[in-house]
Amino acid sequence: MALHRRVDEAEADSELDINPVYVREVHLHVPRNRLPEHGMLPDTALQAVRDELILDGNARLNLATFVTTWMEPQAQQLMADCFDKNMIDKDEYPQTAELERRCVNILAELWHAPGCEPGPDGTALATGVGCSTTGSSEACMLGGMALLWRWRARRAAAGADTTKPNLVMGSNVQVCWEKFCRYWQVEPRLVPMAAGRLHLTGAEAAARCDENTIGVVAVMGSTMDGSYEPVLEINEELDKLKAAKGLDIPIHVDGASGGFVAPFLHPDLLWDFRVPRVASINSSGHKYGLVYPGVGWVVWRDAEALPEDLIFKVNYLGGEMPTFALNFSRPGSQVAAQYYNFLRLGFSGYQEIQQACQDVAKYLSSEIAVMGPFELLTDGSDLPVFAFKLRDPDAVGYTVFDLSERLRQRGWLVPAYTFPEDLQDTAVIRIVVRNGLSRDLAEVLLNDLKVQVQVLDAHPHPPAPLMPGSTRERGGFAH
Is CATH 3.90.1150.160 what the domain over 354-458 is classified as, yes or no? Predict the structure, then answer.
């Protein structure tokens, strides 16, 4: 059965309604949950699906997602041109494979992989080691697998036990890291959040490492609040650990969002391959890489950081070729669109777009900070993302969940949620500013926020259940 279920699923009609004015087929039945006995005209099928989709939210007003919701018409056309190209068929579609290779090289240079900087003639001295994926979740899995395989090889060479690997990370990591640990039977050593410390620090990371630690995950742009974790500080603490105990532990940087932000807004920040212990970096092309979902990227420091026995050679697609991915068949359209963006925008274009997003984020956060009942946890100085909470929910008589629900009445999709372990009593609202949220739209959001605060201030009430008769705790968006 499908894991996602509608609350009202049991009460739904078994068939979809079709407007009779537009139907050219008599007695048409459109079942919801089974294959229809006969086909239907394409316009009829289109109407049925479109009528369902109008119930989705407005993507431009979705401040919950990090994922790109707008691309230029030219990029959309390019993606449509490539929908029928299977990325894995590199022999049949060699130029799509070439665009993927170029994108990896561009990112390897952007993230300062050794030898990938341009030489005197403008060409890179080395080729980047990496690949495209369906998103950062898959890219994280690949980065984690490389850490695990390298740790096993080191332990096996030393004649040591290889059955108890662990991975150190903050409890603010995206759920894909918990999945990685469960799927590959790695112990997750989660550093809990604490008041005044909303992400991993160097000392906290090093304190949880031992001879079974395959690596430390540092997040460049926490999902919870948009803040960067201190990669250089973590590196320095791991250096001290090596000097004291001989433990040589690598770092994987989860730059799902920050990988396409920090190089343009914080070029002097040391977080990438300029930090010696960083073995691999992932990022999402479909987030601040500005491509429609789904495309991700993972790049390793060099060939030595990617174990050879993780790479498969396939020869039944027309020629032997290496592949390292959890997924196999997928369209080449997102890779083509990523390369389009690199050509279309260049360094300065990405810099201007990310700076515009950050300007809006810092403006919004500064206005919300002086609004009255709110306290900022972050202000958008790292990612163009910030989080805030009510100073005293008991005093005002409402919660951030009430505010989120009321903003949704105006079309704004603004997530409210509680923090992970040790800070579960802290409920926040997070706003993600992406390309497309203009200063004008930000002003509309601020006005709507002020109105809803005034209404809630005038009519405080106990928290209402999510649904009639529901005993579930109130929660925010799944993200």
Answer: yes
